[in-house]
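Contributing new records

If you add data, match the layout below exactly. Sequence lines come first and carry their own label; structure lines follow with theirs. Keep one chain per record. Anything else will be rejected by the validation script.
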Amino acid sequence: MSKHKFPYRWTLKDAVFTKDKGKVFSCFACGGGSTMGYKLAGFDVIGCNEIDPRMNKVYVANHHPRLNYLEGIQTFKLRKDLPAELYQLDVLDGSPPCSSFSMAGVHGGREKGWGVEKKFREGQAKQVLDTLFFDFIDLAKELQPKVVIAENVEGLILGEAMKYAQKIIEAFEDAGYTTTFTLCDSRNMGVPQMRRRTFFVACRHDLIQYVPQQGLFGAPYINLDFKEPEILWGEVYEPGNMQYPLSDFKRSMWELRQQGDLDLSVCCGRAGRNPNSNFQDKFLYKDKVPNTVPAGDLCIPFDEPRKRSDSEVMACSSWPTDYDFGAEKVKYICGMSVPPVMMAQVATRVYEQWLSKIPPQSTPGTL
């Protein structure tokens, strides 16, 4: 019997998606990571909203959504022509971009980036990323699904950013939802990657009586504590796969590595170079859980002078081995998306502890 609820190595062609756990619509869908997670958990993902045409092309090629909205959520939330089934959702899903709150690669204070307009490489219009979460909540207020699940960076609930998290909870309350949030780590969820993410799970006010509650004020409770065994780099590692060899400079720094070094910056310091450079070039050790897969993955196996291969990135991210990435970079899509198995674990708990307890006919005003 497998030690893990969901296999991190799998294929779309062999997967069995039961579609009997409820209907989901995915916002900020990217290449489809969260969508695959819901499918693995038995949900029927009826459509998506995504602003990036390149990511949407990959999503459509693999998932063939019945409803596909290629536009920013700022305009999508204002639509008055949405079909009735979007007003009968079990789950509204979304991963609003909030890189301003990320703890990764922060120098000089992440707070400097809050409220600043940013422009994505895809050529989108400039937008303040910090507000996209509230656009998503506006959509929830309009559609009134039973449950809303929003995934975001760890930094959103750390330090000064907790003020934003509190505003998110207040916005959900105004939209008709009571919210709880949990920090999850994919390494404990059957994903061979260290990836800490915050999950906001919100229950519609009229359904709160059907879900577990805690505290004096009856806040909704969900157990998202996962204790699956860790999957080490040694299990994912493909010796001899030199798809992405290091540059001459990085190779020379790699030659100076010593057991226990965290990243290539240590080697740079050892060589008399700038010790603050190349800190994102993390070393991968066979006896440790692989590092997070970011969109610009630079991780280096300690045993070989190269970066992670596409197949290793897919394994670390729990993506199916037969996924069609088209012309896009595997590491970019995987790094920008929720690992499918991570989402499958959360979605399964939401169904078992919440949705399975809620009467099937529970659109607003029917209870």
